[in-house]
Amino acid sequence: MLYYLFEYLESHYKLAGAGLFQYISFRSALAFIMSLLFSTIYGKRIINYLQRMQVGESVRDLGLEGQVEKAGTPTMGGIIIILATLIPVLLISKIDNVYIVTLVVTTLWMGAIGFLDDYIKIFKKDKKGLKGRFKILGQVTLGIFVGAMFYFHPGVTMKEKLPLKYQYVSENGTPVLFADAEKSTKTTIPFFKNNEFEYADVLGVFGEGLKDYAWLIFIPIVIFIITAVSNGANLTDGIDGLAAGSSAIIVLTLGVFAWVSGNIIFANYLDVMYIPNSGEMTIFIAAFVGALIGFLWYNTYPAQVFMGDTGSLTIGGIIAVLAIAVRKELLIPILAGVFFIETLSVILQVSYFKYSRKKYGEGRRIFKMSPLHHHYQKSGYHESKIVTRFWIIGILLAVFTIVTLKLR
Q: Which of 191, 249, 179, 184 has its CA nearest to residue 211?
């Protein structure tokens, strides 16, 4: 909203300083500051309100150190993250941008699913919360929406970089480095020549005419990614600060990709995919990172508030959509490696338990407890040490993700 106001003041009245709102860097910095201030200042008020409403965490005794003391800690703190993200975004971003619209819908939709899950657990006294099939249905519905938006919307395009011999300077002196914008289902894939993979080629094997139906491949992949990442974030949210801190690292890395991919100069210099209008996502990302860091003010050990499914499902959904938007979704197993290994530990634990029970008559375990962070708790590590080390691993994975763009 403020973007359009200052754009009007700049164009009609030449108001000094109004032109700053044309710069994504300025608006991103402003979004980060606004989000951080909101989450730290108003976050405390929201926590106090949750306490008055007796929205406390119900803790099952799993034999973990310090677990009993956490009973009654306010949950549903993901509301802080959602509000601290959306308020700056709605104020200073181009709200008609297709990427911003998709991210706002994702935030509200996943937030609503998570909120309903937490509500059932707390106020209906049902520890299972929202039934799994309804969660999956909500994630699939969002996946169909996001996939359809990114595949069919005319504003979602990319530009192929022209070979050096075809680049030229136009009559008005503007360098022409890229071909015209076009619809495409190309994405980034590490370790391969040109770092690109075209989803349409999967159907092209059965006939060139089938490439027009690439959405049959693209949309199911989007659904799978959103479901997997949101559930991965949900599983990671088990000890103080782990999910919020790990997510901030992942989102900050995606912010670098969004900034570079949306800037024709940087995209050309770094030889990465140029995605017109994607730079606007940097404002959303800046606000989201500010919200996560502000939330950590209250969520680090010992936590004064938990994000609940309201926060964790929303965080996972946003990360998935951001990765798809900047066409880096195939890098998620590396970039979101903390989420991946947490999810994998649960899958391995459950699968091996069922297999061993069938084969030996009793269930056996690979880990002392899953997800993986609980295994280390059971091994005697303090949760603050586990969180810090997982953050360090997350940083290493983020750097490696960026490096993979040059490993061809």
A: 184
CA angle 90, 285, 44 (to 5 degrees): 70
Distance CA 249, CA 252 (A): 5
How distant, in Å, are the alpha carbons of 83, 140, 218, 393 from that of 253? Answer: 22, 26, 24, 14
Phi, psi of 74 (to 5 degrees): -55, 135
Determine the Cα–Cα distance for residues 284 and 298; give it in Å rounded to an integer. Answer: 22
What is the chain's Cα-based Rg?
22
Residues 258, 326: contact at Cβ < 8 Å? yes
Position 406: which residue type? Answer: K
User: Which residues, at least 6 apart from 81, have a Cβ–Cβ distance to it below 8 Å?
Assistant: 39, 244, 288, 291, 292, 295, 307, 311, 314, 315
Contact assessment for residue 274 and residue 286, using Cβ atoms and an 8 Å cutoff: no
Least Cα distance to 289 among 331, 266, 330, 322 occurs for 322
Q: What are the percentages of helix, strand and coil residues in the chain, rounded to 5?
A: 70, 5, 25
Output the six-digit token pair for 22. 């044309």
Give the whole-angstrom CA distance, residue 227 versus residue 221.
10
Q: What is the pLDDT along the chain (408 residues), one digit of tens a residue?
A: 777 777 777 777 777 777 788 889 999 999 999 999 999 999 999 999 998 887 776 666 566 666 666 777 888 999 999 999 999 999 999 999 999 999 999 999 999 999 999 999 888 888 788 998 999 999 999 999 999 999 999 999 999 888 877 888 877 777 888 888 899 999 998 877 677 888 888 887 777 777 778 899 999 999 999 999 999 999 999 899 999 999 999 999 999 999 999 998 888 888 888 999 999 999 999 999 999 999 999 999 989 999 999 999 999 999 999 999 999 999 999 999 999 999 999 999 999 999 999 988 888 999 999 999 999 999 999 999 999 999 999 999 999 999 887 765
Cα separation, 270 vs 265, whole angstroms: 9
Beta-carbon count within 10 A of 321 CB? 32
Three-class secondary structure of residue 339 per DSSP? helix
Report strand pairing: 168-169 vs 196-198.
Answer: unpaired
How far apart, in whole angstroms, are the C-alpha atoms of residue 24 and residue 97?
13
pTM reported for the whole predicted model:
0.94
